[in-house]
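[job 0412] stage=fold_complex status=start
inputs:
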Amino acid sequence: MSVQTWTFIIVGLTFALYIGIAIWARAGSTSEFYVAGGGVPPIANGMATAADWMSAASFISMAGLISFMGYDGGVFLMGWTGGYVLLALTLAPYLRKFGKFTVPDFIGDRYYSNVARTVAVICALIVSFTYVAGQMRGVGLVFSRFLEVDINTGVYIGMAIVFFYAVLGGMKGITYTQVAQYCVLIFAFMVPAIFISMNMTGNPIPQLGFIGTMTDGSNMALLDKLDQLHRDLGFAEYTSGTKSMIDVFAITFALMVGTAGLPHVIVRFFTVPDVKGARVSAGYALVFIAILYTTAPAIAAFARTNLIETVSNQPYADMPEWFSKWEQTGLIVFDDKNNDGTIQYVADAATNELKIDRDIMVLANPEIADLPAWVIALVAAGGLAAALSTAAGLLLVISTSIARDLIKMQIRPNISEKGELLSARIGAVFAVMVAGYFGINPPGFVAAVVALAFGLAAASFFPAIILGIFDKRMNRQGAVSGMIVGITLMLFYMIKFKFDGFGGGTPEQWWFGISPEGFGTVAMFVNFIVSFAVSRMTTPPPQDVQDIVEDIRLPSGAGEAHVH
Amino acid sequence: MSNDNKAQKYWKENLVYLGILLAVWFLVSYVFGIFLVEPLNTVKIGGAKLGFWFAQQGSIYVFVILIFVYVSLMNKLDKKYGYDN
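[job 0412] stage=fold_complex status=done
writing structure:
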């Protein structure tokens, strides 16, 4: 059977599964719609969190990114996993004890202020929208490459599927669909990795193959071999990297803190039955994420070695079939500068003849390694599972923000349960439409902003939540001024150095040598300092708020997530 | 022991655990994976340089262990103070 037939079968089966689950687990109340009634078992929540978290970017782009960044790629690996330690130890248990539905809920109540709530809603919407647009694009890309439909048609199909189970099922439907999507995506990621690890190092476990020796007779360690190939072609050593130490530190820190501050991740910990469940489900989530995140650097190194050995100094005419297939998509470009018919792939831009888009590494990997057609189809289904699960989680945050944080808490406080549920569903419809629009007409800045969303979350939410739990003296004035200064500073730096506003700037002019991607770390510290200083100069929070803080620090008595 | 007093003590012990676990978190990622990556790279684990390995593998394994250590410490602490209902 051809790759395309296999893709239709596997993708069709997984879609039928998702829809079946959505019908079985549809939501009947706002509590079920927002937090699945607070009754999700911790291990299922762990899987759902992992699927929610690992987006099309993690599945499709990350290994390729690391493949081209070498050591520097570690910022993503450490940044996107280390955040869960912060989440498990400093946020999840306390927010679960607090027992509401959203991050703005917590901020609004803890800082007894609708201004604080509104600032939090705006931050949540900015972060979620930039993120979801990228997911829809990912869905479109996978469809167009593997099912050979138009990218826009792919986006419509993705919209229809997400629409169906997010609007109908709410958090309950999404949670159980994400459990299924996790299984699909991790299987799809691991199968080719195991095959390739076997081929190259003789070890079926990619994490061990990564530190193993080559089976090509050279008896060299895989990473030594790769370093040597890099040196020969004039690239920086794979295991050394090119970023400055301070920038690596700042980016890693911003990604960690941003991960812990992302609303669609935090909200997942409102769905478990109690505080104990919140702690352990963060642990399960990280196990499920770590399986992919420790495999990705192995795939990156295998793919890089494979690629260099396949193309470097080889005649163009001898290239395998996948090479020309990706050339047609424009993601591989060969320009025979010296007209010798051989591919010179080197660091020096003047003589380099090959350009490879790093996004193709995971998708092309099974073809490069000559794996069976069903494995290639599986990778397509995995990429779709990753994109759809993240999109659904984000859409839920958007619809909840609209229905609860804006309509229920601010515009029409006496809305009925039924009316609120209806407005949550309408919010989800609206969010799907907007996401689809951005998927079809992607603004040029989406990719750049997705990376910066972490900096925005780090600079705004994170200090306000942490201080709300760990500093009883923190008051409304402190938290609001901290959030505003933090996010403004981050936006200013982003616009100046990324989008050329405020006179622009070159990397030489970066403050402290820190890139816009890492600047969330600086903005976060500024937020902490401003919050602290302002709160100490103004009146302490009222007694009932201090009692809330005392209460969330103790694990017992966390009831079902409640409405009031 | 009054309720308030008990709650204070529970919170203090919790903060000590947090301090120790977050120190390890910082050590394996930022110290081993970033600040000391060059000196650690002179040592090898299998075919990989140790500093590089911490940045791309080791820190993640330690993160997972840290969360489960935290879960078990806190479960014991909850029991000790009677907050485990």
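[job 0412] summary: DSSP finds three helices and two strands in chain B.
[job 0412] exit 0
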